[in-house]
Amino acid sequence: MSISVEEKIKFAIIYPLGLEDLGLDEIRLKFGEIEQPTTYPGVLEYHASPLLMLEMSLFLKIPTRILMRLDEYKVRDFPKLYNKITKYNWNRVICSEDVHIKVTNSKSRLIHSGRIEESIRKGLKKNFSDTPSKKKDFEKSKSFPIPTLHFNLKNDLMTVSIDISGTELFKRSRIYSSEAPLRENLAAALVFMSEAHKKKTILDPMAGSGTLLIEALGFNTLHTKKEQAWEAFPCFKAIIKSSISKELRLDSKINEVSAFEIDKKTYKALESNFNDKNYNEIKINLKLANSFEQNFGSSTELVLSNPPWGERVKIVGKKSDYFEKIINKYLTKHDLALILPRENHLPNEILKNAKIINIKSGGFPISLVYWKKQKS
Ligand SMILES: C[S@@+](CC[C@H](N)C(=O)[O-])C[C@H]1O[C@@H](n2cnc3c(N)ncnc32)[C@H](O)[C@@H]1O
Prior knowledge:
The protein is of the alpha/beta class. The protein is 27% helix and 23% strand. The chain is built from 10 helices and 14 strands. It has helices spanning 20-31, 50-59, 78-87, 113-130, 135-141, 184-193, 211-218, 264-275, 319-330, 348-351; strands at 9-14, 38-40, 43-48, 65-74, 100-106, 148-154, 157-163, 201-204, 256-261, 283-288, 302-305, 335-341, 355-361, 364-371. The chain has a 7-stranded mixed beta sheet. Helix 9 links the parallel strand 11 and strand 12. Helix 3 (78-87) runs parallel beside helix 4. It starts with 8 loop residues before the first strand and ends in a 5-residue tail after the last strand. The structure holds S-adenosylmethionine. S-adenosylmethionine is lined by residues 178-182, 205-206, 208-209, 211-212, 260-263, 266, 290-292, 306-308, 313.
């Protein structure tokens, strides 16, 4: 039932729309040249060894999730679907029918996602009653995230996958949150795009709970703390997470990070997030303050921030004036990276000097914008 660590399996790495190319660059940086993926919007699909994919689930910071492809078949009626589910060897990946199920369907004869899920659940129940898991595997699985199965039906072709981590990969660094928390993988994307990990001193002047800085400090490390669903997959029994190579570390140059936050409650979250981690060799400067009134060392190489957009965190005046104020304060002395709404109304004159990646997160259009330091 175990899968050999060398055997190649099809995997799909899922990204927020627009981050596929940056995601591929992260893979190249951390794993070198690997087999060319097949790309779809928001997806890079590979044939790779399970070990490589599991390493990726610990080391890559930009993906949302990694799916292992399990099966693919044409299906046009419910009896066939039920039959396929009852016959599949589920015991190799899951240990009971207690799983999350996500169904997407388009251009197919089976159109009702609710009924598709019902049929799958019935099939799984029958499958596990005919061939129950080993008791030991079942007991172990209780300590790990409940697996999520993805059933994607398109043009009558069903693709069945399992999320190897169980919960989104971006749920990792932040324990205490803010009013408008930033998804960790978007923060990691800005970190990578602005090469924050290569700079010695970085600042977030509107830090919220500190996601950008924490992602910058963690960009080059393996994230082994989080429990992942694959640790309980019977087919990966032979792979022990703690033995996944420490050589996967990359050097980070950051030795000082600074943050300002104006809101008292959020500042507490920021402090707690840093206190909870061990940054022995890094100088951390946190200050409860209005960053527009603060001066700080010109040695800061990069300023990066996710400023308020006037939605959940209010701003006074026009959005574009507010963003320009931030840009004017920092850009003549430092590299600057911002996460902004796509509709930021900034003049072309300012945007033309920036590298911009337009993405969609939760359906919302966002821009990652990075300027190299400009002389005034
Ligand atoms: C969009 S939130 C940042 C969220 C952050 N990236 C996170 O993940 O928690 C913007 C933050 O900027 C803070 N802020 C707004 N104006 C500020 C100012 N002038 N100085 C310092 N902080 C400010 C707000 O209190 C808010 O916490």
